[in-house]
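INFO  loader      accepted 1 record
INFO  loader      residues=516
INFO  predictor   begin
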Amino acid sequence: MADDRQDVSLKETPLSSIPELVSQMRESFRHKRRTLPAEFRVQQLLQLRAMIAENEGVILEALWKDLHREHQETTMIELNPVRGDLSLALSSIHKWMSPESVEKNLLHKFNSAYVQPEPYGVVLLMSPWNYPFLLCVQPLIGAIAAGNVCILKLSEIAVHTSNVLSDLLPKYLDEDCCRVITGGVEVGQEVLKQRFDYIYFTGNCSVGKIVMKAAAEHLTPVILELGGKSPCIVSDDANIEVAARRIIWGKCINAGQSCIAPDYVLCSLDTQERLVEACKRTIREFYGENPKESKDFGRIVSSRHYQRVVALLDASRDKVVFGGEVEESERYVSPTLITNVTGEDKIMTEEIFGPLLPFVIVQNTDEAIEFIADREKPLALYVFSEDRATLNRVNHLTSAGGVTHNDTFLHGSLPSLPFGGVGHSGYGAYHGKFSFDTFSHRKPVLSTSTVGILEGVNNIRYPPYSPEKMDDVDRLQGTSEGRSFWPSRTLRMLSLITKSAMGYTPHQQQQEEDTQ
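INFO  predictor   done
INFO  writer      dumping tokens
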């Protein structure tokens, strides 16, 4: 495969225009307020749907040129999840925007209390190169549905896809709703100098720290979708043939360049022997005897990333039992199985982000759990076992952004589950309704009445204070620890309400109580 990007350059946003662009979007949100009505949000989401429908071929071809990814795979892992989130948002947006009633104690029985979602304002969405369409448009759906105005910083590495999106998005979305910025490191640095109301970033930990530091300058909240080394535990009782197919599929999708790809396998020596042979059969079944010739197997995105993956492979050459073929001119790295790896090997020191699958030997599930617990929390964790107790034990004794049992990847495809990391794998979550919630401030609202009957009851919280008043306050606030109203107290509360209804002022009520 020739490098299709040699004849194309990324359209770069002038550095000098970035502060003014951000300022325009802030003015748009503060003064035009066009993104607030549901009708406008729906219209923009429908435009996104039209953009995909009318330009699907162009989008698929751009992703092929960037990643050599087969169109069906791209449709399955990038376009369809976006379509799903669009359909959910369009069918649910009015419900999502509605005030949410909350429970009330006796003190607030006659008050109105609810949570009102409201947009943060100007949102920065920084998308990566490995899923340059999905991880641009999917968070954009949530940000638009929540009523924000958005600035997209597209990847400088997935050149074809970024150029297509920078052309299409302004044609379909209102400029008061969405603007696009493209460029390399200098452009990214200039963008991060600006003040935003919320920042979404997908990428690695190193850049995530830079984004977080820049956000801290303005006390801007962030959602960080990072990554890490996602382990895959395969117990001795696992269905080996099924495990092999699902692990290889999750590992080799997008040539291993997925933040939730299984990074390494933890299993016993006996299971390693059986699983490796099953994985060899699966690779041949999926991609033929020579995966390089398969239209279904992708390529590493750039020469720099190719060199990084090859360096990891070369450091473990003596442990390769299958694959290991590379071709620099095509940025090709074959599906590769590496056995008897230890925690100290170079390949275990960083996220692989390529089609290399190391196997680490452990004696049992408990040792696998300890191995995971001794490292940074991963974005995903996979467990293959036919024993429910084993699955539950791993669940309870490990921490990860998300977990899938007896499969890989799939927890990220269900919009009713939040997708996000924990610790070094990131924080915050999105997908489906969780995207709307992430890009919304949940504003609490309490509305009280000035009707005299209620003000009479409120007299118990006004000075002068007394033990009797405190006793009533405890009961009204639900902090009386099991004490119930004595009849006399009940009568006193009814008396307060009755006197208020008769026109007694709080001062008159207090005077009458003082004389009794």
